[in-house]
Amino acid sequence: MPKPSKPSKSDKKSEQLGHHHETGKTQDLARDTAPHSEKDRLTDNFGHAISDDLNSLKAGVRGPTLLEDHLLREKIHHFDHERIPERIVHARGSAAHGYFELTESLEQYTTAKVLTEVGKQTPVFTRFSTVAGFRGSADTPRDVRGFAVRFYTDEGNWDIVGNNIPVFFIQDAIKFPDLVHAVKPEPHHEMPQAASAHDTFWDFISLTPEAMHMIMWQMSDRTLPRYFDTMEGFGVHTFRLINAQGQSTFVKYHWKPVNGVHSLVWDESQKIMGKDPDFQRRAMWETIDQGGTLEWDLAVQLFTQEEADGWDFDILDATKIVPEELVPLKVIGRMVLNRNPDNFFAETEQVGYKPTNLVQGMDFTSDPLMQGRLFSYLDTQLIRLGGPNWQHLPINRPLAPVANNQRDGFMRHVINPGRVSYHPASLDGGSPQEVPREQGGFVSYPEQISGEKLRRRAESFSDHYGQARLFWNSLEPIEREHLCKALQFELSKVETRHVRVAMLDHLEQIHPLLASQVAVALGEAPRADEVVKPGGTADCAEEMELLAKAEAQPTASGGLTKSQGLSMEAQPPKGIRNRVVAILAADGVDGAQVDQIKQALETEQAKGEVLGQHLGMLDGGAEAKKTISNSHMVLFDAVIVPGGAESVAALLEDGDAHAYLLEAYKHGKPIAAYGEGQQLLQGSDLAALVGKDLSEMKALGILSADAPNMEEFVQTLSQHRFWGRPALKRISN
Ligand code: HDD
Q1: DSSP H/E element including 423
Q2: pLDDT > 70? residue 14
Q3: Which ligand 1 atom minimizes the distance to the CA of 173?
Q4: What is the DSSP letter of 445?
């Protein structure tokens, strides 16, 4: 039996911080975690010690390689087979271990122990992903994010395989392959990568009115999360909970990030794809490696059949939310991610989630999208992981004991003794016993079902625009502007005119002004009289006042015009945990100020990183682990220029340093300059464009003072973005 691996850097660091990483799953994985020691003898895969792994066996030093070279052949054989098919969707992803701790019992609603044992920590493995891009694509395209959580409960695995958007594109799983084929790179030339801005996607969408609510979310900043832990997660479908009396309650799951909900802006996303395609993956890794955590509250919406019967939308329709005003969110626990995987392939790549991983006390509903998923996930693991025994893989095996009479198949790991491979059996002491419901056996909810066998959508699924309007109404003006610009961008990339026009027809159903703004950018006639100036302008921002007033009339919304929780901007700031601030420095920097800044940020569990003109110790006493030119403003949440006359004089001459300020300005990020650092601000294009009076710039998130005022800075950073900045004509916003 292999020994458990040595504690990683993160284990050591967080032991100091008092985090407890050990869960039942950590110990379970340790059974298969290979020891690593420099003193190990090098062997082949069957334990034969190898004396020379650098030269193949040849006939003479300059002669051909011999077929006999079994060591060469085995090594290359393994290499040749090291790739498995990537996931058909959600191929690009990254995961971490942690735990879920229940704080509120749902005993009234379910017998599932994971939802009734308050204080219990259940190990989790959570994977975040984009949908469309290949495994090697970048982290930050405009795309829906997968949010898949596995709970290793005492009663078996429970997976919530969700997204960061609470609704979906389609109502019926039979359309899923078409949706995915349409959004993936086009089949003839395999372009574009990780992007929905192309003809086949919008062609499919324009022919799929039920997608319109999801399209509004997809075109909003929701698909540009800043970090994994600044995005929400949703179970999307309506599920059931079943209590000890056998009564069913409907439930929807929501993950609420403790750090608040924040997004990138589109220009920033695109730049990050080049500057650091691993941006979000790296941020999660580094946070955890440095002893930090990523955290979400789990909230539920609980409702009855009678309540659902009174609404003007169908809870089985995955293109609809249940507005929070109809059913408030109840927080029941917290998920904490605190341990990086030891091996990407063995854990993150080989994890196979499936919505059929439910524990007793829970059940599915007849949502036709979910029903198809119940087949698809099990099926896909066969091709991806190579056979029916993928549940033996360490990351997939449950902590709950497994006992049944299934045997055989590729890669069977378990040695099941005895002659019995069937059930029921009386030989060999009989087979494992079925478990009655009262003792925790899974029983489906005995829902009354009757009807004709047919292929038809229920009439209650037919409203496709009502909740799209609800979403639109609920957004803040800046969010509407971004949504409008996203539609202009995406549809302007569509080369086929009739597809663009068909999309305008749908947008008109949501709001004629929105349709008009997009129409103008596409060179089409506006759809509303009030619209824009004669000749039109493609600038959503200029017409924002008009758009801000543009309320639509929702339907299928439980009578609501707006709903809380849909706007990200309307949510209050939640502190600055895990944010990263660039500190621009050169030789001669004021090291004491740098220390003060870094410490103040650390107190808030945020991070200051010194970017120098060269690596290593800078004169003045700060250490630069990155440089101004090997990094970029888009990778940071804010920028600070500390004092130090010599340092600031050098930065004034450094075009890259100026670019940090301009980019931060353009993306609405906090900027601060202290001591001599203020000269950089005054000498930059910003001062010339915005006005030289630095004190007036505070309201715009631009701070300056003779010495760091970190309380003010932290408060400013917690606001994330300052949208009210005057546009700078010389750099496009
Ligand atoms: Fe799916 C993967 C989320 C509809 C078929 N899906 C996958 C993952 C997430 C989701 C997060 C990645 C899991 C991981 O990290 O390994 N999928 C969703 C959501 C949906 C949804 C929230 C709608 C509410 N999916 C959906 C449908 C089907 C699939 C309707 C098929 C009928 N999904 C798959 C799949 C994948 C997958 C092909 C690819 C890899 C995998 O399952 O394990 O089976």
Answers
A1: none
A2: no
A3: 30
A4: -
- pLDDT category at 39 given cuts 50, 70, 90 is confident
In 126-198, alpha helices (H): 176-183
* End-to-end Cα separation, the chain, in angstroms: 59
Q: Is the CB of 395 under 6 A from ligand 1?
A: no
Question: pLDDT of 534-579, one tens digit each?
Answer: 444 556 666 667 777 778 899 999 999 999 999 999 998 899 999 9
CA–chain centroid gap for 13, Å, is 26
With CA atoms as reference, report the closest residue to 352 among 308, 296, 395, 306.
Answer: 395
Strand partners for 299: 254, 331
Instruction: Decide if the complex's ipTM is over 0.85.
Output: yes
- Per-residue pLDDT at 36: 76
- Rounded distance from Cα 623 to ligand 1 centre (Å): 45
Ligand 1 pocket member 575 (CB < 6 A): no
Ligand 1 binding pocket mutation candidate from 373, 391, 393 (most atoms within 8 A of CB): 373
Please report the pLDDT score of residue 530 as a whole number.
66
Model confidence over 479-499: pLDDT tens digits?
999 999 999 999 999 999 999
Catalytic residues: 90, 163
Does the predicted model carry a pTM greater than 0.90?
Answer: yes
Burial class (CB in 10 A: 0-12, 13-18, 19+), 144: buried
Q: Is residue 205 within 8 Å of 499, Cβ to Cβ?
A: no
Closest CA to 300 of 355, 230, 361, 238: 238
Q: Which amino acid is at 675?
A: G
Q: Where are the beta strands (DSSP E) in 657-696?
A: 671-674
